[in-house]
């Protein structure tokens, strides 16, 4: 085979793999949207774009699903230009215009506020996020959006669970859908079933014009990095473990945890009839093989 033919063959294979990945991602996002009823008829969804791979992928997949979905909904892309030094303000508008997506760019110098308020060397993320959140809610209201879509994926959600467990003493993750803290918005995470590695591949295949995420000069969150490394090592050693753990989040048994606020342990009484889901007391629960029984996602919305 000559080199031109070999190159053509490679390109064809790359296209085939990229199509397969795109289908898998659309299917996973469609399933998450359906399972949590994230998007309904008539919704106007504000898709928050940071310029990173996750939010580009989120918008791209939602655009593809919108064109085929059985429900009608609108998408509007949103970016907050926080005036970080070196932020290339032209990149997102140019991309969004090229895709024909309606968008809103909000310019707010939160960078200067954070620098002024937080002493040098201290972590700036919590104030920065708080400011950003307030602006997102205000803009969503102004634009008449009924949903706010964020680009967090399955791995972010699991990392948050372990962060809260290890450092906060709480069994609390990052939900696929929630009411915002001001009570006025529904926030959705349509990438809840998508793993980060697939998003990296997808961003490469789609050649998104990525904007670096360290422009603010803040140190990366070391605790999150520790958890991320831990999960990646587990996954390497026991393939499928992350997916199994995510499924555990969807399969909670409050009577077998220890939160008296979640389950009425104080009021427990014996009963004559068998108790469905009751404990087998001193026997161990049979466990399925690790990585087995994988979930399959249907492609549907609504
Ligand atoms: S990394 Fe920078 S931009 Fe992101 S939340 Fe922290 S301070 Fe804000």
Unreliable stretches, pLDDT < 50, 5 or more residues? 293-300
If you average the pLDDT, what whole number results?
Answer: 91
The total strand number stands at 6
Strand percentage: 5-15%
How much helix is in the residues?
A: 40-55%
Short description:
The chain is α/β, with parallel strands linked by helices. The protein has helices spanning 3-35, 53-66, 91-99, 110-117, 125-143, 154-168, 196-206, 222-237, 241-249; strands at 44-48, 74-81, 103-107, 147-149, 177-179, 186-188. The protein has one domain (10-249): 3-Layer(aba) Sandwich (Rossmann fold), CATH 3.40.50.
Describe the protein in words.
This protein is α/β, with parallel strands linked by helices and 302 residues long. The chain has a single domain, classed as HUPs (Rossmann fold, 3-Layer(aba) Sandwich). The protein is built from nine helices and six strands. A six-stranded mixed β-sheet has the order 3-2-1-4-6-5, sandwiched between helices. β1, α2 and β2 (74-81) form a beta-alpha-beta unit. α1 crosses α7 (196-206) and α6 packs across α8 (222-237). The model is unreliable at 293-300 (pLDDT under 50). It binds iron/sulfur cluster.
